[in-house]
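call fold target=Leucine-rich repeat-containing protein 59
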Amino acid sequence: MTKAGNKGGNLRDKLDGNELDLSLSDLNEVPVKELAALPKATILDLSCNKLTTLPSDFCGLTHLVKLDLSKNKLQQLPADFGRLVNLQHLDLLNNRLVTLPVSFAQLKSLKWLDLKDNPLDPALAKVAGDCLDEKQCKQCANKVLQHMKAMQADQERERQRRLEVEREAEKKREAKQRAKEAQEREVRKREKAEEKERRRKEYDALKASKREPEKKTKKETNQASSGAGEEEVSVRPGGRDCPLH
């Protein structure tokens, strides 16, 4: 695998004013760190290499104004490609791109775009049209930006819709949980009341069982006392002598 560090040599030596030409360098990786150290290189030519992907940190090269990535093997652009907000001229001719990242809509400075000779999605290909002259390439940039902005808006609406659905689902889950907790509290409250009633009845039964022997004893005592009194009354009349006058 060829890297710019060994085949491309010192990038600073290749810098001509604000232009850095790394075309035809047999690159299969982009020397991002070295490029980041050259903020003066606002025009970058990476055409005619073997690039299949761009690293995500490539999107940190926000100083780029003109970028040529034509005649590589790029299958997709990084998701945050839209961070290259100063980009005005972008050449993606003859790659393997099917779609563009939604963040492409953020390239508000883009004035020129070439997407020819890519296996683009039919809808995107129709929007892009040809780029056979300056006018068409400018139209391509404008139309594709508008298309990607519409896609971004659609995705944002869909994201908001999903969030709303998730919020509603969460509310229902919370309401269901609250109802469940309330039901559990009611069950615990009822069980507690039933337990208290059960204990009260046990206590009353225990007291009643203790009073029963006392009542029986008292009744027996009363009966005994009553019997003795009757006997005493019946004996006295017969056993007493009448007094002599």
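return ok
The two ends are 160 Å apart (CA to CA). The beta strands are 15-16, 19-21, 43-45, 66-68, 89-91, 112-114.
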